[in-house]
């Protein structure tokens, strides 16, 4: 299994890895060293907290490095009149008689609470490549699907404000 990422995603992950290795790792090691100097490690909360922070940083570095190693690079290019990566799309949910606006992003940036939906999600897959006025079937699973109508497409770009998911 691999994640589909853009060149911008890879660059942002490489920058985070470098920052974590050069800055966060140094600070975390210093905090562990300082906490260790306080004496009895079995009852030293500061030591355990510092070790936990250090280990979380190392886990994040490993996670990002694995994501980069196993990623499939995808293009962000799309026609101006069709839904593509990083585009903001207003859709009409026919069953609910409601409109919602979403931005299509990669899995590493997905955040449904902020209406950032992954290109690999059922809705994201259904919208990609379609144009204003198209009715798209969103297939959730073999037993359930629903329809949406594309009402508006904004050709937004990756400006770096969409944060990478933690894990």
UniProtKB/TrEMBL annotation:
- What keywords tag this UniProt record? Coiled coil, DNA-binding, Elongation factor, Protein biosynthesis, Transcription, Transcription regulation
Which Gene Ontology MF annotations are present? Answer: DNA binding; RNA polymerase binding; translation elongation factor activity
What the entry lists under SUPFAM superfamilies is as follows: FKBP-like, GreA transcript cleavage protein, N-terminal domain
UniProt GO BP: DNA-templated transcription elongation; regulation of DNA-templated transcription elongation
Which ranges carry the Transcription elongation factor GreA/GreB C-terminal domain? 80-154
Pfam families recorded: GreA_GreB, GreA_GreB_N
The Transcription elongation factor GreA/GreB N-terminal domain sits at 5-73
In terms of Gene3D superfamilies, this protein maps to: Transcription elongation factor, GreA/GreB, C-terminal domain, Transcription elongation factor, GreA/GreB, N-terminal domain
Output the InterPro entries linked to this UniProt entry: GreA/GreB_C_sf, TF_GreA/GreB_CS, Tscrpt_elong_fac_GreA, Tscrpt_elong_fac_GreA/B, Tscrpt_elong_fac_GreA/B_C, Tscrpt_elong_fac_GreA/B_fam, Tscrpt_elong_fac_GreA/B_N, Tscrpt_elong_fac_GreA/B_N_sf
Role summary: Necessary for efficient RNA polymerase transcription elongation past template-encoded arresting sites. The arresting sites in DNA have the property of trapping a certain fraction of elongating RNA polymerases that pass through, resulting in locked ternary complexes. Cleavage of the nascent transcript by cleavage factors such as GreA or GreB allows the resumption of elongation from the new 3'terminus. GreA releases sequences of 2 to 3 nucleotides.
Q: Record's family?
A: Belongs to the GreA/GreB family.
**PANTHER family xrefs:** TRANSCRIPTION ELONGATION FACTOR GREA
The record's annotation in HAMAP family points to: GreA_GreB (MF_00105)
What name appears for this protein in its UniProt entry?
A: Transcription elongation factor GreA
Q: Give the taxonomic lineage as stored in the record.
A: Bacteria, Bacillati, Bacillota, Clostridia, Lachnospirales
List the gene name.
greA
